[in-house]
């Protein structure tokens, strides 16, 4: 059975999209069947996989609002271990408001994923930087949440709000929702600040923090403009190594041997 993981943090620029693309790719490179779903109207995940969002006729917008079959939106990237993508487009910006009066508005993504869940080992959902209905759809559909936290000033700011939202969803909508883990991103070993943030986050989340820490790495910032995961753009970079390690850790935590 496929495991659905929402990559969420309502702060922008913490590494959600970078983590979705590169963790997704690294899981697929380990032989897992992977689907990555773009729930952000900015569609950075879509373009980061090299897909031009101006030419698409079915995206997360059509799935959520028009209840189109998710299979119509699926794009398979053969050159990337056959990873599947559900793309987004700027149209999705309207969905946050359009969903409000709709029936089963929190369950639309969950319902659409039902048919295809078993076709994958991992389904990663890239969330937008807000706690509105798009993120709520992701948290409702998910088995677990993976939270990226940037090693910067105010790293812990907003986390209480995020945890409150996760707990509300757990209590009212999705009782089995769990924290998959917390990944520290953009770590700079030369600053005391980065080291302090790691300590603070470990105190806050106890055993949930991954041993793998994603370093600040210029190549990670460049890869999206070439439409490639880091492991294809620069396989020997620190960024590529880190996301490959993270994928191994996640496979291990989920109780499976690594091929
Ligand atoms: P979010 O999806 O949370 O808004 P992104 O993944 O888009 O965050 O990251 C924000 C910006 O930082 C992007 O330009 C991305 O390329 C860059 N970035 C992300 N992770 C790293 C990293 N580890 N090192 C350097 N740049 C990074
Ligand atoms: Mg993003």
TrEMBL record:
It comes from the Bacteria. Residues 3-179 form the AAA domain. PANTHER family: P-LOOP CONTAINING NUCLEOSIDE TRIPHOSPHATE HYDROLASE, PARA FAMILY PROTEIN CT_582. This is Chromosome partitioning protein. It comes from Thermoanaerobacterium butyriciformans.
């Amino acid at each position: 059975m496929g495991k659905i993981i929402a990559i969420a943090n309502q702060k922008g620029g913490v590494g959600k999209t970078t983590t979705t693309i590169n963790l997704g790719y690294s899981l697929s490179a380990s032989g897992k069947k992977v689907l990555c779903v773009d729930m952000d109207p900015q569609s950075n995940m879509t373009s980061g996989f090299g897909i031009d969002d101006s030419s698409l006729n079915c995206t997360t917008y059509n799935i959520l609002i028009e209840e189109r079959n998710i299979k119509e939106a699926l794009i398979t990237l053969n050159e990337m271990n056959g990873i599947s993508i559900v793309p987004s487009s700027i149209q999705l910006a309207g969905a946050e408001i359009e969903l409000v009066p709709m029936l089963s508005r929190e369950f639309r993504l969950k319902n659409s994923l039902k048919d295809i869940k078993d076709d994958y080992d991992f389904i990663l959902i890239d969330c937008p930087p807000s706690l509105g209905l798009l993120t709520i759809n992701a948290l409702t559909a998910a088995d677990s949440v993976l939270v990226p936290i940037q090693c910067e000033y105010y790293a812990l700011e907003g986390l209480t709000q995020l945890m409150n939202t996760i707990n509300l969803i757990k209590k009212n909508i999705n009782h089995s929702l769990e924290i998959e883990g917390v990944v520290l991103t953009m770590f700079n070993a030369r600053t005391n600040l980065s080291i302090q943030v790691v300590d603070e986050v470990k105190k806050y989340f106890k055993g949930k923090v991954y041993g793998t820490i994603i370093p600040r790495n210029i190549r990670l910032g460049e890869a999206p403009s070439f439409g490639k995961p880091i492991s294809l753009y620069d396989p020997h970079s620190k960024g590529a190594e880190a996301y490959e390690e993270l994928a191994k850790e996640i496979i291990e935590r989920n109780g499976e041997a690594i091929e």
